[in-house]
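Record format v2
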Amino acid sequence: MQLTTLMAIPLIGAVAILVLPKAKETLIKQVALVVSIITAADAVRLLVGLDTNNGGIQLAEKHSWIPSFGISWSLGMDGIAGLLIAMATILVPLIIIAGWFDAEKSERGSVKEFFTLILLLEVCMIGVFAATDLFLFYVFFEVMLVPVYFLIGRFGGAQRSYAAMKFLLYSLVGGLFMLASLIGVFIASIHELGHGTFDFTALTGLHMDAGTQKVLFLGFFFAFAVKAPMVPFHTWLPDAAAEATPGTSALLVGVLDKVGTFGMIRYLLPIFPDASHYYAPFIIVLACISIFYGALLAIGQTDMMRLVAFSSVSHFGFIVLGIFVFTSQGLSGSSFYMVNHGFSTGALFLVVGYLASRRGSKKISDFGGVNKVAPVMAGVFLISGLSSLALPGMSSFVSEFLVLIGTFSQNRWAANIATVGIVLAAFYILWLYQRTMTGEPSEEVKSTVTEINKRELVAVVPALALIVALGVFPQAALKIINPAVKQVQKYVSVVDPAPAVGAATQGNGS
Amino acid sequence: MKTSIEYAALAPIEILLTAGVLSILIEAFVPRIHRRTLQLFLVFGSIVVAFGYLVASATQILNGNASVTGGQTQGIRELAASGSVAIDGPGLFTQGTLLIVAFIGAMLFAERSVDPQGDAFAARASTLPGSEDERQFTAQGWTQTEVWPLFLFAVGGMLLFPVSNDLLTMFVALEVLSLPLYLLAGMARRRRLLSQEASLKYFVLGAFSSAFFLFGSALIYSIAGSVEFGTIATALTNTLQDPILLAGIGLIAVGLLFKVGAVPFHQWTPDVYQGSPTPLVAFMGAGTKIAAFGALFRTFYVAFGGMRWEWRPMMWVVAILTMLIGSILAVTQSDIKRMLAYSSVAHTGFILIALTATSPAGLSSSLFYLLAYGFTTLGLFAVVSIVRDSSGEATHLSQWAGLGKKSPLVASTFALFLFALAGIPLTSGFTAKFAVFAAGVAGGVTPLVIVAVISSAIAAFFYARVVVLMFFTPENENTADVVVPSYFTKVAIAVSATATLVLGIAPQPVLDAVVNAGLFVR
């Protein structure tokens, strides 16, 4: 019941806020903050309690829900899910602090609504990572859209309606294809087991023939690729991230998009091992395109939020690449990357949000010389940026490096191309820094851009501290991730280390 | 052959039709001031009594099913009225659904606080639209209770339609349910020309389709030598590829597909949905679809079950067209009632998947779908009826802009119903869709399911568009007002919304019920 309890905490918080009177804005914010901190503490407690010798699902619980369709309320977590849940729940209070005054600015939504939605979203985020029933996962995957849709559409910038709609439609279409595949899996389980089930462990034991796997794989992959987002299904992300409030963008890119890559590791590889091998070469190509294309477009952006969004497209390329090379370094690297990227991009979005709210513009050209007027702000911005470009010493470096090593032993070309992506990352981040922070501040910048305040600092520093801490001592996280990765490799029947064997299975594709 | 009528088994139908007759007598002999009270007692009373009776006999049947012993089958599924009516699990479930829909529908009919002029129906239907008479009667605040006998007869016909076990009874039921609806469609208080146009279209096209149905019945009779479903099924097992047989099946299909609003027999839906009084649209949109699908399933599973390889290709084409055309045309609409009409067409297509699957799962999933769809439709139109401006209902989409700010509760409820139609998890629409799609894949019609997924994606666009309008678009001077209705509409909306959520979150009891309902009697 521990995971259900974890989900119940923010849910109770959301209900509590709903019954509070609308006018008590400060009280609402305080309740939201306290609830989210308790949730984060509980999530970390569960994570620390995980048995690192066990790669399987722990803290498992199962209650029958809709037996006719073989659906149960089953939760549980392995190291990867545990870290992602911890990352998500730690980000939420930071975002609440950073977005303390965001809701008042909106002429459409109220403070009460904003924080209710955030807490509801938190429930769904925990649920989607903790679900061990494929159907339950799908339910959270879809229901999550609703709070995000309203968060973007009611609290965003000028183009928010368009962005919210685009986000919703992309996700819904992806979700519907996943639904079709979901039904296919259900029918396959009826054929093989005699009764339909969505239980994760039962599904990994299915022996679907390769043809069926290939078809069903595509439905899931499409949904995950939209979510992740991979080129060419990424176009909703820059719009959504640029129009939402910085906090929402941080959650959207930092946590929600991880559902796509998490789904790949948790469901695609174990349930469709043959299809995963079959499609791996194509997906690796797509991943390389994402790395490159995302980085190139990031360089070309004039809007800071969009730049960060495109940089994420590039980062997600790395994550997907690491997953589909099937090596333990690649998979561990990707899993670790998911966590790091959440913190680094989250921090970057928040800092950009601070700047934008002061200057009233997200345009890069409207800034310049910020380090003269607000040196601490510039420093925080720099650290966030450096963590995004994976500077050694930052945790993102460790994960990116692991992905590259893991890829190299399998597919040299992909590794080489991805390495160039790192150079591009350095380019767009440092150039962004140069254009916005250095030089002579203009009159507008001088008059509007004030130094970062304590509240804002409190929201960003924990994320940056974690990045540095995990960069210096990555073993803390890898120790939790590795057993889970071993388990995934078992499902896709990849023996590791065995680059020669791996190369042979790759052979027909590359 | 000795003619026998099992009055007990037919009781719900009898209760409603008797109530209809009494209702006419009330109109004829009771002073005007007492009519409404009496009519309401009669209507709600008869529905409740019929429902109670139905539940009692269904429990009896379920218990019978549990203890199936050789000679006991008589009470489990029975043919009544010399085989003209089949009282079986699916039939009873459909009747139960219809009575629930009728009850909520009647609450919307009874609403009198929404329109300052009275209710949703014409002050005097016989006056010409725009005439001096009309103005006078309206100014004097006239309201009529003549809708109630019509309503009761329509419900009686609907109850008979899905349990008819021969083509003639089915035809009679079809007419009994349709004729009152044609009339009611023309009785809107406001925009009467539109309403009368709707009525006429509905009537002319409906009469055509009835004729098709009758003609098809004659052709089938010429081959099978009987109009009774069981006999037809036996006779057809020995008949091969007779063109007259195929024509007969096709013509009967036209008659029934018209009633469910399948493409290409859907043209009446947008006009009738737009022009008719909204309480009627709620009741008719849910009730007719449920009753007609009940009849469609019985006809094609029982009478033509052995011929499924002949009619399945036809249903494939109809289902694909219905899903795609319904959802594509819905995107282009700017009137909320027309949009919901096309969306109802798309939903017809989804249920046709279950029909085409020709399996027990297909039948049970469609029963669930119809129940879920019934609640959602009632709720949707109940909300539409209270969103108004000075000239009546505000049905143009632009008038819904900013409604979320003006009236958050109503807008959120409407959004819930839209999410259910779109099939978002934790709403009834999702469970229903899942059940139907799963039955489709298991029944070997996977391509239909894929088309359904694509059209669901298209449909998501226009449902989301309304949500965008309500919540993300600022109010303007055109934004409609939400009228505070009486308890009738409030309860109707609350019940529909609750059912939409419960069937999405805890659907297991109902899923068990539709499976336990079992198969059609032969």
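Chain B touches chain A through 35 residues (CB under 8 Å).
Residues 66-76 of chain B have pLDDT under 50 and may be disordered.
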